[in-house]
# Entry
Amino acid sequence: MGGYLEKLGYLSEGITREEGRTPTPVPFLTIVRSSRESKRHQGVLTPSFCLILQGEKKLYLGGEIYHYAAGDYLASMIDLPASSEIVGASQEAPYIGLRIDFTTQEIASVIMEGGIDMTAKAGDLSAGAFVGRSDDVLLSGFERLLKLGGRPSEEIRFLSDLIKKEMIFNLLVGDYGHLFLQRALFDQSANGVGKAIRWIKEHYADAFTVEELAKACSMSVSGLHHKFKAVTTMGPLQYQKQLRLQEARRLMLGGLAGATAAALEVGYESPSQFNREYRRLFGLPPLQDMKAMRNASASTEEFVI
# Structure
């Protein structure tokens, strides 16, 4: 594995040595680089597969702390409010990672086209994100993606989609397949926790009760609480609150709204409640947080590796 990681690091540095996120010619592949440690920051972990080539990170999800380093990957199947920090990065040994974005629909498509038996690894629901260890088969997929850069854009799009499908297939049938194969997340027509998560994402600014959500998903209140927390590490109302606050932060950081307008936009009726909950999550009141974020040239639009 060490040889593959060095090769991937060399290929990625041939594309960019810029700090932060750098898109590649492959539409869904991003290179992330940092030459300094980062403080723990809040964000939303979106559906993605993130491989560390060099360095180390910590992910805080619910009450769990995940440590992952070179050769490890972080996979997320749903949007999950979380926080992370880069550990020990320096100019001499920067953090370098590769990120592939995907959708649950893409995974569901590979399951169907590949004839993968979802019942074979069925079990209790687990968190919608996890850390795994890569192997040479997986790393070869990243190598082929990075080497597509010199081809015409039409060829890159076609070939990269095939490689992405192959990588998803290998993950589904590999050692960590049982963590990907969670029917509640990929069965788009089924009632249950997957439907509840999608509804909140689409209606995070709307008020609802857990009783109403459980009824709409044909679940008991206790069943919804148990399964929702198993997958997201939090209850439905807390999940909604964090999505609201993350969106409000994005609006303010992008200059699209002030604090009061952002609060109203995401569903808050009380500015004082918004300020109180914002400070509890991000550590500072909205205006102070915006000043600190802009001074640090940071962005919370998307949670990266």
User: Anything to note?
Assistant: Residues 153-173 form the longest helix (21 residues). Strands lie at 20-23, 29-34, 41-45, 48-54, 56-61, 64-69, 72-76, 80-87, 95-101, 129-133. The chain has 13 helices and ten strands.
